[in-house]
Design brief:
This protein is an all-alpha fold and about 190 residues long. The chain has one domain (about 30-60, about 85-190). It contains eight helices and no strands. Helices cover about 70% and strands about 0% of the residues. It has helices at about 1-15, 30-50, 55-60, 70, 75-110, 125-140, 145-160, 165-185.
C-alpha cells in the first residue's frame, strides 16, 4: 500500500510540473535498442556487484526483497493490483520523473545557475559526473550497473539531444527488468 501511495503522489507531481517538460518528440529506434542493451547491462552488473560480496558488506546479509507471490499468498486480486501499480511505476512514472529530474534539472543546474537556459541535449563534464553520481547514490545495491547504464543514457542524450529518447530507453529497460524479475523470481532486483 505504501508503494501505491508513493506512486500516486509522484504521478501527481509529474502532472503538476508537466508544462515545464520539453515538447514531445518521438523517440528514435536507437532509444529502444539502448533500452534492450540496458537490461543486459543492468542485470549482469548488478549480479556481479551482488556476488562480489560488496552488498553484503554494505547492507548486511540480505537486501529487502518483495515477492508478491509470497506476500500476497492466496490473495490474487491484491497481487494483481500490486503488480499493475508496480509496472505502471516502473514503465511510465519512474522513467519520466527520473529523466526529467536528472537531465531536465540536476545536470543542467550543474552547468549554469540559470539552468532553464541550458539547451536540452547539452552536458559538460561536471554535469556528466553529477548525472552519474546521483543515480549511483540512489541505487547503491546496483551502483556498478547504475554507473554504466546511466552512462549509456548520457551518450544517447548527447547523441540525439532528445530527452524523450532517454525516457523511452529507461521505460524499455524497466519493462524488461520487471518481466525478468517476474520470470526468474529475482525479487532483489526490484
Amino acid at each position: 500500500m505504501l508503494y501505491v501511495g508513493k506512486l500516486v503522489l509522484t504521478l501527481l507531481a509529474v502532472v503538476a510540473v508537466a508544462r515545464g517538460y520539453p515538447r514531445w518528440r518521438t523517440p528514435s529506434l536507437l532509444s529502444l535498442l539502448v533500452g534492450v542493451v540496458g537490461i543486459v547491462v543492468w542485470v549482469g552488473l548488478a549480479k556481479v556487484q551482488r556476488m562480489s560480496g560488496i552488498n553484503e558488506m554494505l547492507f548486511g546479509p540480505t537486501r529487502a526483497e518483495f515477492d508478491p507471490w509470497t506476500n500476497f499468498a492466496g490473495e490474487d486480486l491484491q497481487r494483481q493490483v500490486f503488480l499493475a501499480f508496480r509496472f505502471v511505476g516502473l514503465v511510465l512514472v519512474v522513467p519520466v520523473i527520473e529523466e526529467m529530474f536528472l537531465r531536465g534539472f540536476a545536470m543542467r543546474y550543474m552547468q549554469a545557475e540559470r539552468w532553464w537556459e541550458v539547451p536540452w541535449g547539452v552536458a559538460d563534464r561536471t554535469a556528466l559526473i553529477a548525472g552519474t553520481l546521483i543515480p549511483v547514490m540512489l541505487h547503491p545495491a546496483e551502483a556498478l550497473a547504475a554507473a554504466v547504464w546511466f552512462g549509456m543514457i548520457h551518450w544517447l542524450y548527447l547523441r540525439t539531444k532528445n530527452i524523450w529518447d532517454c525516457v523511452a530507453a529507461h521505460a524499455v529497460t524497466n519493462l524488461l527488468l520487471g518481466l525478468y524479475v517476474m520470470k526468474y523470481g529475482e525479487w532483489w532486483l526490484w
